[in-house]
Design a protein that fits this description.
Blueprint lengths: L3 H24 L4 H20 L5 H19 L5 H31 L5 H14 L7 H5 L5 H11 L3 H8 L6 H24 L3 H21 L3 H27 L20 H13 L7 H14 L2 H19 L1
Helix pairs in contact: 1-2, 1-7, 1-11, 2-3, 3-4, 4-5, 5-8, 5-9, 7-11, 9-10, 9-14, 10-11, 11-12, 12-14
């Protein structure tokens, strides 16, 4: 089905995918590894491209399974024990979402009831597992063992947005209880990931935690009733995070493949613009005025100041403050 959600997600997928495929050859310097990785990334892009235009649970379930399979092979690319462990953790975590989609399909077919407790539980599991919401954050951190081109395309901008896409596409199946629990777990995810980003030392995991943080905001925006704000947040974050991951990958390569936040440095071949690009992308992701996700967050905060409760406003501003803190770090 061609609509605003499908076109918006496909636009983000096209922009991130076209650059990530070129970056794949740059990262591996034209070696045989890039030749092996390229078809896997194309397979992922094709599967995701078909999925975003699907409008039935059965069709979505089929390509949902393909996404889990191709992400397993992408994480397993380096073929060592740590990659095997990470790919299995990711596969098992994604199984929760896959089984939940199947359970939703069976429940609707048999009972035609979208307000029951079982259906609500299935719906929550689908959105939370694919969006890496708390307590399903660990699979995204493990997925960072994949090559940097894979992380920049799959695990920082597109695959982790599958849960948001599902919520936007099948929002008509949601209920008051689903919205309540999603907002609760999303704000919990935002605070937990922000605190972890402040204390973690692994640079790729810090960027991954930032992904969980920003994707949770997309769900909050849609629960508040604004589809356009949610899509704006999703697309802006996806593009900025994809390009940020590529620049971080170059930075780590020039630092002797170090992933420690205190062990990276700007080499002689970094160029004068790399620090400026990274600074611009980080400021766009944290919501600095008139950059990146500022427009979506500013609209929500303006609405809450005039019509929200004190507790909700306090949590929102705490989340915003923590995002500035870990971005500066």
């Amino acid at each position: 089905m061609i609509d605003l959600v499908g076109v918006g997600c496909f636009f983000m997928l096209f922009c991130c995918g076209s650059v990530a495929l070129v970056y794949c050859f740059h990262y591996f310097m034209g070696s045989f590894s890039s030749v092996l990785l390229f078809p896997l990334m194309v397979w992922f892009l094709g599967t995701m491209g078909v999925l975003v235009f699907s409008s039935s649970l059965l069709f979505s379930l089929i390509f949902w399974e393909y996404l889990g399979l191709v992400s397993f092979f992408l994480i397993l690319f380096y073929a060592n024990m740590s990659s095997l462990r990470a790919s299995l953790v990711t596969l098992f975590a994604s199984r929760f979402g896959d089984v939940s989609v199947f359970g939703m399909l069976m429940w609707v077919s048999w009972w035609a009831d979208v307000s029951g407790l079982v259906f609500v539980l299935f719906y929550l599991l689908v959105v939370m597992t694919k969006s890496a919401c708390f307590p399903f954050i660990s699979w995204l951190l493990e997925a960072m063992r994949a090559p940097t081109p894979v992380s920049s395309l799959v695990h920082s901008s597109t695959l982790v947005a599958a849960g948001v896409w599902f919520f936007l596409r099948y929002g008509c199946l949601s209920s008051v209880w689903v919205d309540f629990f999603l907002v609760f777990f999303c704000f919990l995810t935002i605070i937990v990931t922000a605190v972890c980003s402040i204390v973690f030392m692994d640079l790729k995991k810090i960027v991954a935690l930032s992904t969980c943080n920003n994707v949770s905001w997309c769900i909050v925006f849609f629960v508040c009733g604004d589809l356009c704000l949610s899509l704006l947040q999703l697309i802006t974050h996806g593009l900025c995070k994809c390009y940020l991951f590529m620049s971080v990958g170059d930075l780590m390569s020039q630092s002797g493949s170090s992933q420690s936040s205190v062990g990276v440095y700007l080499g002689r071949y970094s160029g004068r613009f790399l620090p400026l690009v990274q600074g611009f992308l980080v400021l766009s992701l944290c919501g600095l005025p008139f950059l990146g996700v500022f427009f979506s967050k500013h609209s929500l905060f303006s609405l809450l100041l005039y019509g929200g409760g004190f507790g909700l406003v306090l949590v929102c501003f705490l989340s915003l403050f923590l995002s500035y803190v870990y971005s500066v770090r």
